[in-house]
Amino acid sequence: RGIYLCGHSAGAHLAAMALSTDWTEYGVVPDIKGAVLVSGVYDLEPLLHTYVNDALDMSREVAQRNSPMLRVTPPAPAAAACEVLVAVAQHDSPEFRRQSQEYGQALRAAGWSVSMLDLAGVDHFDIIEKLSEDNYVLTQVGEELPSSP
């Protein structure tokens, strides 16, 4: 029972935005039990002056509005038991590593239950590609999540 969010890179950004959303504004209260955020982008402002923004054409206001780092609030009562894992690759860029560390700390400071995982020997791509391996730590995390009755 409940929802488990998982995302990598931009997918981790989307999952983090789901955690930051005030769902009562939409008349729903999702039962989010946990989130696994892998090598995510949690602050979009550093992208404004990079080639990535050539296609996105984000303004500063849009970047701020869509940055989970700037939207961290205490968990809603329904999310009080939500467990969040923020994982980052050893060989991710310094910016991915910084954002993962700071986002995890911000969640924890706001009262979320957060675990941090720094995965040795992997980069931004193989951190997620290794999910096909049974003995890989992220695969095992997924197997430890409670299953539906």
TrEMBL record:
<dbReference type="InterPro" id="IPR050300">
    <property type="entry name" value="GDXG_lipolytic_enzyme"/>
</dbReference>
<dbReference type="InterPro" id="IPR013094">
    <property type="entry name" value="AB_hydrolase_3"/>
</dbReference>
<protein>
    <submittedName>
        <fullName>KFA formamidase</fullName>
    </submittedName>
</protein>
<feature type="domain" description="Alpha/beta hydrolase fold-3">
    <location>
        <begin position="3"/>
        <end position="124"/>
    </location>
</feature>
<dbReference type="Pfam" id="PF07859">
    <property type="entry name" value="Abhydrolase_3"/>
</dbReference>
<keyword id="KW-0378">Hydrolase</keyword>
<dbReference type="InterPro" id="IPR029058">
    <property type="entry name" value="AB_hydrolase_fold"/>
</dbReference>
<dbReference type="GO" id="GO:0004061">
    <property type="term" value="F:arylformamidase activity"/>
</dbReference>
